[in-house]
């Protein structure tokens, strides 16, 4: 039986960013250096396939430092943690490795610098997200005000409207964040912004690639976890740029084939914490059902690499 023809537009870049790649290497190298079990506070990155793979190698994922024995190493996730977490680990004389993405750490440093200069911070981010919790936890309570939308800006009550700076979560929608920044600058003309945008290169590049693909296709799939902020933003970007059917799937088994029955053009991308093996799995699933032509739509090239901490590079 002849398979129907389908063009699969693969957005590029997609998948792992440098921060995620570094965080996974940190866990793997820690297991090799100290032997299992290695404890990881929160999912090292937001991807079940990755987490399950590391768990099989000897990683134990916990949500609180209280769940970690004093005599076993612990790793802090790529999303970053509040200052109180490493302080508590040090108090307990624990061995710990910080896998916070360097681009998240950059935001932490910005916040600290502005605080030292007497400014109150406004953070644009999603309430409850680990990165937001970690960033707000760099400063004393009340020194970081959280906003998610332009409506939040309208009700903001800072200590001094002329002594403000803003930072952002690194995985937000570029366009939505620009609107919030504009609202902040309109209401607080003296607010200070970052020297370089806080939204990371990988988030920006993946969104730009989706913007290029979305008008070409009848459906677009984003490979990523439901708790992955950057992956969920890709779905929103696709819908905002002309693709009516955009869905998040963790892997090929979650694709709703009935929903794309009769469609002949599909876009595909993957969030920054989704490995290449899942992209290949989805492409193979399409090849099983269609006569697939893959067209790569590349809007940027990435060659960023972050070093792992020295403690893991040193021989025991």
Automatic annotation (TrEMBL):
Catalyzes the conversion of 1-hydroxy-2-methyl-2-(E)-butenyl 4-diphosphate (HMBPP) into a mixture of isopentenyl diphosphate (IPP) and dimethylallyl diphosphate (DMAPP). Acts in the terminal step of the DOXP/MEP pathway for isoprenoid precursor biosynthesis. This is 4-hydroxy-3-methylbut-2-enyl diphosphate reductase. InterPro entries: LytB/IspH. GO terms for biological process: dimethylallyl diphosphate biosynthetic process; isopentenyl diphosphate biosynthetic process, methylerythritol 4-phosphate pathway; terpenoid biosynthetic process. Binds 1 [4Fe-4S] cluster per subunit. [4Fe-4S] cluster binds at residues 17, 101, 200. It comes from Aliiroseovarius sediminilitoris. It comes from the Bacteria. The active site is at 131 (proton donor). One of its GO terms (molecular function) is metal ion binding.
